[in-house]
Design a protein that fits this description.
This is DUF4242 domain-containing protein. It contains two helices and four strands, in the order E-H-E-E-H-E. Strands 2-3-1-4 form a four-stranded antiparallel β-sheet. A hairpin with a 4-residue loop joins strand 2 and strand 3. Helix 1 crosses helix 2. The longest helix has 20 residues.
Length: about 110
């Protein structure tokens, strides 16, 4: 048996939320964090890698890593937010400059 760790697949989950606010986003992310921690502790590893809110489109996206879409769905349901759409084998990147621990602040935008 090799000591290799199996690679998790990434999933994109979409929720449509009228009246999406920073508070409602924070609340859902906190619920997702609790649900994924609980499922992981129970032996079904799942992680929320990032969320992206687009209030003008009334949509919230979440990128998850897990070995099964069923585990992602279970985490969302535990958080009270069943996925309205889920895409499989998603590839996501964060620009190097904006990663946690990168040197210097992000560039300021002129208004």
């Amino acid at each position: 048996m090799s000591g290799a760790v199996p690679t998790a697949t990434r999933f994109l989950v979409e929720w449509y939320r009228p009246d999406l606010t920073p508070q409602s986003t924070d609340d859902l992310v906190a619920d997702l964090d609790r649900a994924t921690a609980d499922l992981s502790a129970e032996g079904s590893p799942v992680w929320v890698l990032m969320t992206l809110a687009v209030p003008t489109d009334e949509v919230l996206y979440g990128v998850f890593a897990a070995h099964s879409p069923d585990v992602v769905q279970a985490a969302c349901i535990r958080a009270g937010a069943a996925p309205e759409r889920m895409s499989y084998d998603v590839d996501a990147r964060i620009t190097e400059h904006f990663r946690v621990g990168s040197s210097g602040p992000p560039p300021q935008l002129a208004v």
